[in-house]
Write a structure and sequence with these properties.
two-stranded antiparallel sheet; disordered C terminus; transcription regulation
Amino acid sequence: MPIPQKPDIAEDLARGIFAGDYVPGSFLPREVDLCVTYGVSRSTVRSALQQLVSGGMVVRISGQGSRVCELTDWHLLDPRVSDWMARFAQPNPRIQRDIFAFRVAVEPFMARLAAENATAADLLAIETAWHNMIGALSSPDRRWAGRSHDEHDVAFHEAIFAATHNLLWSQLSHMLKPAIGLLVETSNHSAAELSDSMERHRLLMEAIRLRQPEQAEQAALSVLERTGLDLGFASLFDHLPPRLRLPGAVEPPPG
């Protein structure tokens, strides 16, 4: 007879926070109540709460309890917090917009570095992820080689970060993986949109393979432009510096 697994208290509470059951400024249930609810000791409850404190989601106030912090205080690049966000967050336009704006600022530069530094192994990883995305599109359940189309899409972008051969940028891709996955899952919709997106990904892959940094930078922006259109964030491209503005973009009005 299988032994029942103990509940992950921190994950349960994080799910409640992201779902809006505990809003910023409100207090989580008391430690003694959590002990009763989960049938565990006080030290176990405190250990779970400490995970939320370490993630900036909760602050412990002596004599009052554990209060949920404002979103601006959350450590969204903490691997566990970003994983919770990707799995539990209700559609949140602010979170999605901020993640997307960060990607627009960073990924074109990553593509440029990848075009300059990618090894044969890096190119193989990028091409494999792209071919797996194409394979997933031909499958009724959009899965290929045991993974979903969205997972292969995330792997494609991870491979580009790794191809920069910069330790910090490569590590950043691991921390951002759940956040990028959240946008990919939200933005990949109709077959027509996916076909357009795959062609943009192919052009990015080719620019990196052909060692064309400027073309890779522009191709990365083109990939993000498709995502921006799908998410309703196209206006973020209105204020790009002139050298990054995509062909056909309208010059924003002064002021």
